[in-house]
What we know:
It contains three helices and six strands. It is an alpha+beta fold. It has two domains: about 1-45, N-terminal domain of TfIIb; about 45-139, K homology (KH) domain (GMP Synthetase, Chain A, domain 3, 2-Layer Sandwich). The strands form two sheets. It has a three-stranded antiparallel β-sheet, with no helix packed on it. Strands 4-5-6 form a three-stranded mixed β-sheet, covered by helices on one side. A hairpin with a 5-residue loop joins β1 and β2 (about 20). α1 packs across α2 (about 105-120).
Amino acid sequence: MDALYTAIAHATGGGRNGHVLSEDNRIDMDVRTPKEMGGSGEGTNPEQLFAAGYAACFLNAALGVARRMKLDGTDAAVSASISIGKVSEFAFGLSGELDIYLPNIPADQRQQVVDLAHANCPYSNATRGNMDVVLTIVD
């Protein structure tokens, strides 16, 4: 792969109960374990950051597909849900759900846009075969 951009971020102070900082200082925040996992829940967490990145990346891929197909991607949106859970006694895994809203794309072409976006999105390519991802077109 010929890298076009490289993001660099640093985690300090205890992993899920620490601090994250991007090299350009655009991300500079505390992270905390969610309450559901026994933490304080008083900061963001890695799953929220992953969900935000996946939603933005998938939306961009869908808009690119729509543009190439000469379809109207106006008002499109993606909501990503990222779940974490135990997969064995010592290991955790992730799963995801993407709700894709394509209001100005004809209903009979939405699935094609979603399928092509899923084939091209870097997050989808990184997770394919590594975690379950459910794609749902919402009205």
